[in-house]
Specification:
Layout lengths: L8 E2 L13 H9 L18 E7 L2 E9 L1 H4 L14 E2 L6 H7 L1
Antiparallel strand pairs: 1-2, 2-3, 3-4
C-alpha cells in the first residue's frame, strides 16, 4: 500500500535547515534513484516540475520532497498528489547530512 495522495500541504517553516545537496530538486534526485519527472506531482497540474517542494500530510510522518512546479510549490491551500509519485525523506539529518558525514 502506498502513501496517501490526499490532503498534502506545502511545508513552510521559518528557520528550516537547508539541504546540503544544494537544492531540494538535487536532494530528490540523490535519494529517489529515478530520473526527474517531466510533470508536476500535484493532481490536475499540467506544468513542468521545476523544483523539489517540501510537503507534509497529517497522515504521514515528517516532511517529504515532491517534484513540483513553482506555482504549486507556492500554494497555501491543501492539495492532492498524483498516485504513483516518488516522495523522498526531507529530514536532512537522516539523508544528505548523514551521507555527507559518511563521505
Amino acid at each position: 500500500m502506498g502513501v496517501t495522495t490526499n490532503g498534502w500541504a506545502n511545508h513552510k517553516e521559518p528557520g528550516e535547515k537547508a539541504c546540503e545537496c544544494g537544492s531540494w530538486k538535487e536532494h530528490w534526485l540523490s535519494f529517489a534513484a529515478k530520473p526527474w519527472p517531466e510533470g508536476c506531482s500535484v493532481q490536475g497540474c499540467s506544468n513542468s516540475a521545476s523544483v523539489g517542494g517540501q510537503v507534509t500530510n497529517p497522515a504521514v510522518t515528517g516532511v517529504k520532497i515532491a517534484p513540483m512546479c513553482d506555482t504549486c510549490n507556492a500554494l497555501d491551500a491543501p492539495f492532492n498528489l498524483d498516485g504513483g509519485i516518488t516522495l523522498v525523506n526531507g529530514n536532512v539529518a537522516e539523508t544528505c547530512a548523514r551521507k555527507m558525514a559518511q563521505a
